[in-house]
Amino acid sequence: MNDDVRNLVLGVVAAGISAALGWVARTYLWRRKLRRKQAFFGLPDNSECMLVVNRDPATSEPAVHRFDVFALLELSALIKDCGANVQVVTQDTAQQGFGERTEFCVGGPASNRRMTAHMAAMLPGVRVNVDAEPGPDRGAFQIGTERHRLEAGVTEYVLLARLTVTQRRDARPVFLFCGQRAITNQAATRYLARNHERLHRKHGNNSFVLLLKVVNSQAYGPDVVELVADVTRAAQTPLPSQTVSTRASHRAS
Fold it and tell me: In which element (H, E) is residue 146 found?
């Protein structure tokens, strides 16, 4: 074997080794990223989760608002990426405790009785005005001593929460998407899909409650979302008995 042939063979072997090492490194990084995502969502391979569907309060027939359907599609993609299986149930038929399966619950208490139960059990510091009569506080969020009013199509709020209620390491979380309007539910699911890595770095697998603001949805749809504040402590602290202050917006700290 002359020098040219030997150098060619050595070059091919080196290229093959480099390609193999690169593939191994990319596979390792991809698997590590997937494992972190699965841990955050509580969705290991082939696990089961529950997606609780709300109803459209504007109709008398059982129906789901189209923006809530879009929210469900956003969540379904996340679940599929984790290699998990999903059971879709309606808000009036969901009967399950906490921690056995990951749960994604979509819709405010006016359209989802499961959300009402979760808020009473896990978010005693939050109240949502569900009055049917029009008024300035209709749909408003009260969180601790602050009130956040709805301006339809202009300024709308949604709570995004990841909650665990047991210290078991294998306990699965409950994700809540509680918006003032259906489009804000979709905005929250999209925010979670885009920011779950950052949220995992900040919160780990601990509980958190975030107040998000959807800006000018009549022009931008569910895409322009601002983080108003981490309201975990206020949301999990029972409301004081005194009169709360009214405030249309809240500046992020």
Answer: strand 146-148
| 103 SS3 class | strand
Per-residue pLDDT tens for 48-93? Answer: 999 998 887 666 667 788 898 999 999 999 999 999 999 888 877 7
From the list 193, 127, 126, 183, the residue with the least C-alpha distance to 154 is 183
Looking at the DSSP assignment, which residues form a beta bridge with residue 127? 142
> Which of 74, 29, 26, 46 is CA-nearest to residue 177?
74
Direct distance between the N- and C-terminal alpha carbons of the chain, in angstroms, rounded to an integer: 71
Burial track 158-173 (b if 16+ CB lie within 10 A, e otherwise) = bbbbbbbeeeeeebbb
SS3 250: coil
User: Rounded to two decimals, what is the model's pTM?
Assistant: 0.82
Determine the longest span between alpha carbons in the chain, in angstroms. 92
Tens digit of each residue's pLDDT (9 = 90 or more) over 136-169: 788 889 998 889 998 888 999 999 999 987 666 6
| Residue 68 to residues 39, 133, 134, 137, 181, Cα–Cα distance (Å) | 25, 23, 23, 23, 9
